[in-house]
Amino acid sequence: MKRMTRILTITVIVAVIAVGFVGCEPEVVDYHHNYDHYGTIYAFGKVMEVVGVNAGTSKNKNNVKIETKDFKAAMERLQYIMAEIESWYPEGVQDWDRYVNMSSNPIRIEAGDVAPAKIGESMTIGVEFLTEKTDTELYQTIDDLVVVENAFGKATP
User: Fold this and answer.
1) Are 48 and 103 spatial neighbours (Cβ–Cβ below 8 Å)?
2) Are 50 and 66 in contact (CB under 8 A)?
3) Distance CA 22, CA 32 (A)
4) Count of structural domains within the chain
5) Contact at 8 Å (CB) between 117 and 57?
6) In a domain, 7, yes or no
7) Residue 20 maps to a domain
8) Would residue 67 be called left, alpha or beta, if left means φ above 0 and alpha means ψ between -120 and 50 degrees?
9) What is the pLDDT of residues 72-96, one digit of tens each?
10) The whole model's pTM is what?
């Protein structure tokens, strides 16, 4: 009887632990529902997530909102600029890998004329900066952040 109780107890404990592991799923971050705007662009062989953030961000303290049309225009411009920068670097070189590292987290577009900067683990850039600066200014400031400053690190071999 004691043996049967012990076997039953062990079986119940194993079942509870197994159910606990089966019920555990990795956390999936749904950026689409956590930000005011969401989209994707394609560059450096990857789909890159782009999120638009309104008030309360690091540099946007004035409760300025990004209009949907402005976010879409900024995303289109970002797609164009990133495709051009991609053409400068052959796949597999270190600078290509730095852009791939940068794309591991969503690119954040916030309200204002904010130059590209690393905030947290994401590249953050202002909607007005993207839509009002020249192509050359955009190429230079983004490439300076990602390649020259190596803000997002080198790829591990």
Assistant:
1) yes
2) no
3) 27
4) 1
5) no
6) no
7) no
8) beta
9) 999 999 999 999 999 998 887 888 8
10) 0.72
